[in-house]
Write a structure and sequence with these properties.
Number of strands: 4
InterPro entries: NTF2-like_dom_sf (IPR032710), YchJ-like (IPR023006), YchJ-like_M (IPR048469)
Number of domains: 1
Pfam families: YchJ_M-like (PF17775)
Number of helices: 3
Oligomer: single chain
Shape: globular
Protein name: UPF0225 protein Vse01_20800
CATH architecture: Roll
Organism: Micromonospora sediminimaris
Strand order of the largest sheet: 1-2-3-4
Helix content: 10-25%
Largest sheet: 4 strands, antiparallel
Order of helices and strands: HHHEEEE
Radius of gyration: 14 Å
CATH class: Alpha Beta
Domain YchJ-like middle NTF2-like: 42-135
Length: 139
Amino acid sequence: MAKRDRRPASGPEVTGTCPCGQGLPYADCCGRLHRGEADAPTAEALMRSRYAAFAVGDPDYLLRSWHSGTRPPRLHLDPTQRWTGLEVLDTDGGGLFDSTGTVEFRAHYREGHDPGTVTERSRFVREDGRWVYLDDDLG
C-alpha cells in the first residue's frame, strides 16, 4: 500500500461555518480534511470538502485530493471568484463500501458583482483506500 500524503494544508485560517453547507464549524468539518487529520468517508463528503477548499482558497488540498492519473501539476485559483453556495443535486454510489461514485452539484459564485453557477457531475474513485476526485462527466 502506498504511503498517504497527510501533510497539513497551507491554506488560510478560517473561522465560522464551513462553506460546504453542512452547517458545522469549518474547523470541525472540512477543516479537518484540509489539515490532513481525516479522510472523507464518502464521495459526497470529498466533493463538499473540495468545494470548501475552493471557497477558502486551498489549492494544496485540491491537488492532494485529486487522482494521481488526472491531477494537474499545479492549480491556480482565481482570487476574484467568491464561492457563495453549494447544492448537491444527485449522488450515485460513493458510500462507505463503494469503490466508485458520482456526485452532481451546482456551485454558486460571484465575480465582482456578477453571479454565476457551475453545474458538474464529478466522478470519484478510491485510490490507496481513500476517496479522490477523478474527473467530471459533463456529457
